[in-house]
Amino acid sequence: MEIQSLTPQNQNTGNKNTKEVKIAKEHDHDEHHHHENASKPHVHSEASLKQIVNRLSRIEGHVRGIKTMVTESRPCPEVLMQIAAVRGAIDKVARIILDEHLSECVARAALEGNIDTEIEELKAALDRFLP
Question: What is the pTM for the complete model shown?
Answer without folding.
Answer: 0.63
